[in-house]
Amino acid sequence: MLVVTHSIDNAISVSTQQQGNKVYLLGGYFNPDSHVLHGSSIGEQLQQFYFDFAFIGASGITADGLFYSELEDIQVKKSILQNSKKVCLMVDASKVNQTSSFKMSFDGIDLLFTNRRLPAAIQEKLDLYGIEVILASEGENL
Predict the structure, then answer these.
(1) Which range of residues forms the domain containing residue 133?
(2) Where's the DeoR-like transcriptional repressor C-terminal sensor domain (predicted)?
């Protein structure tokens, strides 16, 4: 499996979980707080890929959309959305009803994986967008 990421933590995790995984680490400026690489070169590099499945996260989710703490995160996510067959959003219960400075709509999201049922207002909005919600079983990690 080929994994493309701009997160050093994700690169380490994927490369040590199963032999045979290949990890392509997108290059940019290193953020020591988040262990993520940023910069305009990330978006340019993402244009060279086409993903069967893309897995993205968010800092928060409400009925109004997805939230991110950095504007560059939205630019990266939009590049991923444009270059993917299916986009899966991974959010655990700690992200529900959390907001931050930058918001993105639910457009382009196909599946949402979470560990608890979502509040009715969020679920109704996801239904409007045709986003399937998959609940992880107890003991499974997101």
Answers:
(1) 51-142
(2) 2-115
Structure confidence by residue, pLDDT tens digits, 76-93: 999 999 999 999 999 999
Phi-psi region of 70 (alpha: psi -120 to 50; beta: other; left: phi over 0): beta
Q: CB of 57 within 8 A of CB of 73?
A: no
Instruction: Match 């009803």 to its residue by tokens.
Output: 97
Q: E strand or H helix at 62, and its extent?
A: strand 60-62
Rounded-to-integer distance, Cα 87 and Cα 98, Å: 21
The mean pLDDT of the chain is 92
Same domain, 115 and 73: yes
pTM above 0.70, yes or no: yes
The closest of 11, 83, 14 to 46, measured between CA atoms, is 83
Backbone angles phi, psi at 42, to 5 degrees: -60, -50
How far is 122 from 91, CA to CA, in rounded Å?
13
Q: Give me the mean pLDDT over the 104-124 stretch.
A: 97
- My answer on whether 99 and 43 are in the same domain is no
Compute, in degrees rounded to 10, the torsion defined by CA atoms 39, 108, 120, 67.
Answer: 10
